[in-house]
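Appendix C. Worked example: Chalcone isomerase, subgroup
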Amino acid sequence: MLGPRAARPLARVCSRQTSALTVRRFLFSPRTSNSTRATQDFDLNRLNNKRRDYERNRTAFLAAGAVAGIISFIYTAWKLKKALELKAEKQDGSAVKCDSPIPIDTFKTEAGEKRKVVLHDEEGREIVPTGNSTVPVFPRTLDLSLPGTDAPTGAPIAASISDNAGTELTLVGLGMRTVTFLGIQVYLVGFYVATADIERLQHYLVKKINPLATTLIPSEKDALRKALRDPVEGEETWDSLLQKAGCRSAFRIVPVRNTDFHHLRDGFVRAIQSRSGRDKAYGDEAFAQAVRDFKTIFNRGQVPKKKELLLTRDISGKLSVLYGEGDCPDKGSRSVMGAIPDERLSRLLWLNYLAGTQVASDGARDNIIEGIMELVERPTGTVATQIL
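Step 2, the predicted output written as structure tokens:
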């Protein structure tokens, strides 16, 4: 046993060792604890980021799959619809068949001059390509029973082109009516002139450029083309021609998508009111009543695509509206929807397609002008004979 004296130094040594151990634990233990916690926090953040990236990529992948599925479904349904329509056309025989593929262009260039492309279907009828897959062709001539079909005095060929079956009209030009800045196609429109009255049309336009000529040379044709394309001069020219020349004419409208009479009526009425509002000559009650009667004519339902709507103008300017079957029109299938005697209404409606600052179809207006150039380059009175 150690005595008190021997035990006292030993106690002091143990006390110093304990104090040193306590100091070391105090200095190093907190640092070790903080380092472990930071490592744990770093690992949790990294795992959380990985999980978030996984969820985001998974969501994007599922969304892409859903969009691809919807697109493929719509495309398959569209292809099936087209196949069924093609099969239906083949079964009912309404599709136009030609020996060669139908071209896209309505005009071709021969010897530096534009000529209208004219084809023949399997029944021998003359047709003109439109460049549209839904309504690929327009008939070159129409036979219509129009009021005022009596032949002009002194016309030697009138008996051949106007009889009990109706009046023959010849296509001058055609084009597509589009709406909105997206250029959504609504209907094709073609301008027809009575074959017997083409001489009057030629005479008026040729004399406008050269009073002594019976036909126009290339430089004179350029002058006429420029005049017809000018918004002011073109409108004045057609306005005077429609009032004085007495040419029977028609606009053939065929929708390329399903539409309705109200939509067509609204477009016509806006064009009429836009032009009539600039002239006090249209401010009387008679014209206002004519517009109301015109609206009443179109108070109907749907107009399926490929159906035919005809706006006709006789010698006196009377407007008649006819509705028919479409691609292969038969005069017996057309029904008269109504008529407006006021010449001013049909004249404004015609100007909506032929001239002015804004027209219903720029393509149709330009195509009609090129058709006019094809007429005035031939001697006056010879075009109808060539058509026959």
